[in-house]
Design brief:
The protein has 297 residues and is of the alpha+beta class. 41% of the residues lie in helices and 19% in strands. The chain has 2 domains: 14-174, Beta Polymerase, domain 2 (2-Layer Sandwich); 180-294, no CATH class. The chain has helices at residues 5-11, 18-31, 50-53, 83-92, 101-116, 177-190, 195-211, 222-230, 241-254, 279-294; strands at 44-49, 64-76, 120-121, 126-128, 137-153, 156-166, 172-175. Strands 1, 2, 3, 4, 5, 6 and 7 form a 7-stranded mixed beta sheet that branches. Helix 7 (195-211) crosses helix 8 (222-230) and helix 9 runs antiparallel to helix 10. It is globular.
Length: 297
């Protein structure tokens, strides 16, 4: 029996908006406060990322994700360029910054603790627990990253600008949240505004499958669900939620997924790297969604 349209429509609804917005405004106000110790002589940018920032949050997964990016210095992938371009870069940027990401993160953590108290440093982000009027919030302290395609001089260069941070074991994680958000919005417009509700529908289907022991928790992170559906053809979306579900499932199941990109348009979606989805987990997610559709009761 197919999942009823009414159920799919319910699953497409957006999660907390007002409380999430108030949480973001509160945290951003503290981060951007002129009295913060990292304000003096430093450049930074604070902005939203994640499901709430992309309007794809569902009720159970409506935590707020804030990026706090150091812009006074930047990391890069210049060693992947040809040797003469590496040399040109070194001539243009010969020094190293005295104030880097570790110092910035320590000052941001200290500043947040003076205002929110119990702020915990996690593996990736700083966690601010919610209270009665504020949702849980993750603050990802990171630095600007340049993904270079070419560097001959400061006047002749091409790169994408993103963020990077480091795990406790030293692994560098690079991502491009602004490109991700912009591409998801474009996809939403190109699908007659079906993309984001369908993403939310899939996320709630995942939650249902996890709750009913059909899918292991953690197999299908929200970020990768967005990326997977971003690769579905625009024509797969529309008419109804039942039609969008069956058509996107067929399209994604039959596609050559080795060619898929994350929604940022830069990273491969399924490459086995620290920024990609495990192909086995992706297959398990799609198989579970098909099973759920075919065996709904």
């Amino acid at each position: 029996m197919a999942i009823p349209e009414a159920q799919l429509q319910t699953w497409s609804h957006q999660g907390s908006v007002t409380q999430s917005r108030n949480t973001y405004q509160s945290v951003k106000g503290i981060l951007d406060d002129g009295r913060a110790p990292y304000r003096h002589g430093k450049e930074f940018d604070s902005f939203l990322q994640g499901s709430y920032g992309n309007d794809t949050n569902v009720y159970r997964d409506s935590d707020v994700d804030v990026v706090m990016r150091l812009d006074s210095t930047f990391y890069h992938d210049v060693p992947t360029l040809q040797r003469e371009q590496q040399d040109a870069f070194q001539r243009a940027y010969p020094g190293t910054a005295a104030y880097g990401l570790p110092e910035f993160k320590a000052e941001v953590l200290g500043w947040l603790r003076t205002h929110y108290g119990n702020v915990r440093a996690g593996r990736k982000a700083l966690f601010i627990p919610g209270n009665g009027t504020r949702r849980d919030c993750d603050v990802l302290v990171c630095a600007k990253f340049r993904y270079y395609y070419r560097f001959h001089s400061e006047l002749d260069q091409r790169y994408d600008e993103g963020i990077c941070f480091f795990l406790p074991d030293g692994t560098q994680i690079v991502n491009f949240p602004k490109q991700h958000s912009a591409n998801c919005t474009t996809k939403h417009q190109n699908t007659g505004e079906w993309f984001k509700p369908v993403v939310r529908m899939y996320k709630n289907m995942r939650n249902y499958a996890v709750d009913h022991h059909m899918l292991r928790d953690g197999v299908a992170p929200s970020y990768f669900i967005e990326g997977l559906l971003w690769n579905a053809t625009n024509e797969s979306f529309g008419r109804s939620f039942q039609a969008s579900l069956t058509t996107t499932l067929r399209n994604l199941a039959s596609a050559d997924r080795s060619t898929f990109r994350c929604a940022n348009g830069i990273h491969p979606l399924l490459s086995g790297s620290a920024t990609s989805w495990n192909a086995t987990d992706c297959n398990a997610f799609l198989t579970t969604m098909l099973h759920l559709w075919d065996n709904w009761q």
